[in-house]
Amino acid sequence: MTHALLFSVFIIASCGLVYELIAGALASYLLGDSVTQFSTVIGSYLFAMGIGSWLSRYVVRGLVARFVQIELAVGILGGFSAPALFLIFAWGGAFRPTLYGLVLIIGILVGLEIPLVMRILKQQFAFKDLVAQVLTFDYLGALAVSLLFPILLAPHLGLNRTSLLFGLLNTLVAAWALWLFRNQLPQQRWLRGQCLAAIVALTAGFIAADRITALAEENLYADEIVLARSSPYQRIVLTRWKDDLRLFLNNNLQFSSRDEYRYHEALVHPGLSATPGARRALVLGGGDGLAVREILRYTSIESITLVDLDPEMTRLFAEHPLLTRINNNSLNSPKVNVINADAFRWLEENPGVFDFIVVDFPDPSNYSLGKLYSNVFYRLLEKRLAAYGAAVVQTTSPLYARQSFWCIVRTLESVGLNVTPYHAYVPAFGEWGFALATRQPWQAPDHYPPGLRFVTPDLLPTLLQFPPDMSPVAAEINRLNNQILVRYYENEWRQVTP
Fold first, then answer.
1. What is the pLDDT of residue 304?
2. Annotated catalytic residue 360
3. Same domain (yes/no): 414, 335
């Protein structure tokens, strides 16, 4: 019995930490700014656990029965926390109050668990051995989950199934305790019924987890969902309305097939057309292959290295017929070498020099993305740029995120590059910004490859002009140790989106 209860402590600790990680990951996924979300969720959760531990002093009778009921409550609330939060967010409900309400309630219940187990076991151990044994299993459970969550659970099961699975484990601990102490529980039939109901509910939820996710996403996206995938790095969703395909990563629009040519022509051609004889190109991000498609218009290009973190992204855009039709099967060109790696580390470890570099990352909505817009990253970029080469960076909207845009420009300039900012109107996004970085002063090209639908020599001067509402504003350099850009971005887009 003693060893069974100690193993239960291991399971309890694992479940408690999983709910904490799920709440932080879900808040980060839906609200952005991962550091803030994880910090506030973890702080609230630990505070609630302290309240639960303090409240345990008032549980004086029926310790085993109370322990079983607490396990069932944690299992139900923790298990259904992720599906409930997804649905509330999708239906426009009070997401933040619900999130922190669940964190506080689950934290209080988890805080009650360990003190009750210690009191149940106090007849089996001396006090010093009791504390050592219980806390050892508690910390081991936390270690196991902290390793499994990012490597196995979140990427392969998803947040919904993970929370439901661990909720089920909590209820199984309750059922196990009920069986171990069956001779000491006067209301065993009632508790057995509660256990059975909880197990059935969580098992049904686990089986229906995909349907719950689909139900939430049907409300999040206005159009028909034709593809949905979860990778270790992001949620990939493709929607379709008539002939318009739209890609969303973590609920953020990446392109519309009706107007993406405007974005990608503006991204590639002002820089590459002004780099005659460019042979080697590097694309960082851009796993959709659309920037690669534009680069392949240049016959002088001999090789393109694409570095994108997510292998699921590059696989989809190399194999799915709807997607290869958009990018002209560019990722399967013999000139293209696809590398799935972190761009920051890849630049550090690979000494090659490139004539043209495209930096096409998602907007700096969190600190892991913000590092890819830092002066440290741009120093690495500068080292990989050929003497007469050009690098172009997507720089978010100069209209909706004006200070963020000029922060990126200033950060590029801080590493000694000549920077030419410009912008283009893309209907799916509005005004969008780019920054062209060169070692030599940039000369506007007077011709482009045939077949372009947007960028022309006559249009280019208008892309270089910034009206008063997009003109330069004061902005700090985005340094790796402060990531001021992420704060600019969060503040500006918060005023645009409700």
1. 98
2. yes
3. yes
